Amino acid sequence: MFNPDKKSLIYVLVLVSFGLSVLWFGSYENITAKTGHQNIFKADTTDTLQWQKPRISERKEDRRQLAELLEERINDEHVLQAIRHVPRHLFIPKPYQPFAYQNRPLPIGHEQTISQPFIVAYMTQLLDLKAGDKVLEIGTGSGYQAAVLSELTPYVYTIEIIPELGKKAKKTFKALGYKTIKTKIGDGYAGWPAHAPFDAIILTAAPPQIPQPLINQLKPGGILVAPVGPTGQTQVITKLTKQRNGEIKREQMLPVRFVPMTGDAQN
Known about the structure:
Blueprint: H1 6-47, H2 60-70, H3 77-85, E1 106-109, E2 112-114, H4 117-127, E3 134-138, H5 144-150, E4 155-160, H6 163-176, E5 181-185, E6 198-203, H7 212-216, E7 218-228, E8 235-242, E9 248-256
Parallel strand pairs: 3-4, 3-6, 4-5, 6-7
Antiparallel strand pairs: 1-2, 7-8, 8-9
Helix pairs in contact: 2-3
């Protein structure tokens, strides 16, 4: 009969313990190896900014064809996706809805127009928006531009000086499900100090010069895009970039014709 001494028993116990440890930690490492990538993926998903973006199937093919047309001059895929998703025909009066996906401006009442889709896409592309950026729009109009912006970031603030248009756009946002857009009726010349500073600012009506309050409300590193020039004459889409040190860089991009910016901008 085998009768091991005390040292032998200790040696055996150490070997058994070591073997069990290998089995346990080996299994743990295998589990980690199999699930580690999945855990990382979940973390990335959790950290990604998400918000509700309405999806309307009506005239989807028309929107696809419009985006395809704009691809000749618009290279930002996020902007093109926004054009594919936002139902332009629901932001204009019914008599003009058959023409909604032609690349042309259309009347929206009160002597105002909805810009042609190319201009909407072009100005949006110039803003270089990222998800999470805070953007201010001066001139809500029909609400179409704000809806396009809200496809890129949920933090969209828009001001309209004509009460009837501002109220109608707000109703349209609610009816279509654009819940993240914040609206205000007032003079856009003064901006929206309560929510400043902004990563980006866009003007959809032309001032003779960019209002200083809007420049002041732009973050360092931010971009402002506006048609600038006298009423009734050719204006120029101007891209203003505020440098990190506060200096202003101006670039003239494209000749256009916009309705004039009213309110204090006229003075």
